[in-house]
Amino acid sequence: MFDSFTGIDACKLLADGAQLVDVRSSLEFSKGSLPDAINLPLQSIMSADNFLERSKPVILYCVSGARSATAKNYLEQIGFKEVYDLGSFQNYCCQ
Question: How far, in Å, CA of 52 to CA of 66, rounded?
Fold first, then answer.
């Protein structure tokens, strides 16, 4: 769908009901997160089916993009169809 996924792309998907997922640790999440994000730390990504709806797009982020890239690969491997990697939370630009 997107050749290069941007913050603007994320905003469009979020406006249509996408799920925003912070894969940082619970401690990092508790210090601040993006609006309406849920915390699913990378080390807990195996329980994604307990927290995420497969029928909705998933947008992942972390600090640098390393953990979100790993989470994206895992979710795709277990059958999630629309998974997008925002990379760093700093790429978020929704107002």
Answer: 20
CA distance 78 to 75: 5
- Rounded CA gap, 72 and 21, in Å? 11
| Number of domains forming the structure of the chain | 1
Share of the chain above pLDDT 70, in %: 96
What local confidence, expressed as pLDDT, does residue 53 receive? 97
Q: Is 86 helix (H, G, I), strand (E, B) or coil?
A: strand
**Which domain covers residue 52, as residue numbers?**
7-91
Q: Which residues are catalytic?
A: 62
What CATH number has the domain bearing residue 67? 3.40.250.10
pTM for the structure as a whole: 0.92
